[in-house]
Amino acid sequence: MSSIRTPEADPVVTTSKAAQLLGVSQRTIHYWMERGIIKSWKTAGGHCRIPMSSINQLLAKRREQLQDPDLLELTVLLVEDDENLREITKAVVANWGLPVRLVVAEDGYDGLIQAGLHKPEVIIADLMMPAMDGFQMIRALREAPDLARTRIVVVTAMDEVQLNAKGGVPDDVEVFQKPTPYDRLKVVIMESLFTQQRARRMNSSAS
Q: Which tops the pLDDT comparison, 67 or 3?
């Protein structure tokens, strides 16, 4: 987290207010501070403060990037056997207003089929599913050359001990605990959108 002091003329807000302004959770705000996405400093009493200029810069950058006419639609595959969770996730993602095409699968076998058909940029998967579970599916996905760079996120009720007992997941697979942290998933989706945008611009410059 940055320790930069802000000028007195620059208003500051608390992490909870920053979360409200940016439409994310406080956990996400702390995550962004740790990664240097948002500047922050601490008061003498140890309380985090965020300059409004940093908030405004992030909001402006987000608007600029998401309104870019060259921004491609991101394909996201959700692999989840719980029908209620599938419907809730579809509603939440639709409410974000992001250029996302959400494909759903009900188990690991279906997930492999849909991944092969749609070549998603992001896969969000449960682990404990009937037929082929998430562990088997992820291993198969990582063996597919055309899906090697797909970003995989696991959302599970299993703790670290239970994960390790099952052999764990590859190091490049992100693991989130249930209940589903939609604010963190939104960060993943936005980062993937911006990565896709940068890759397209680099390809255009090289051609």
A: 67
Tell me the domains of the chain and their CATH numbers: 1-51 (no CATH), 74-185 (3.40.50.2300)
Q: pLDDT class for 93, splitting at 50, 70, 90?
A: very high
- Average confidence (pLDDT) over 99-128: 94
Neighbour count for residue 144 (Cβ, 10 Å): 13
Separation CA 157–CA 159 (nearest Å): 7
DSSP secondary-structure letter at 176? E
pLDDT value at position 193? 85
Q: How far apart are CA 82 and CA 67, in angstroms?
A: 34
Query: Cα(161)–Cα(168) distance, rounded to whole angstroms?
Result: 9
Q: How far apart are CA 17 and CA 26, in angstroms?
A: 9
Q: What is the pLDDT of residue 7?
A: 44
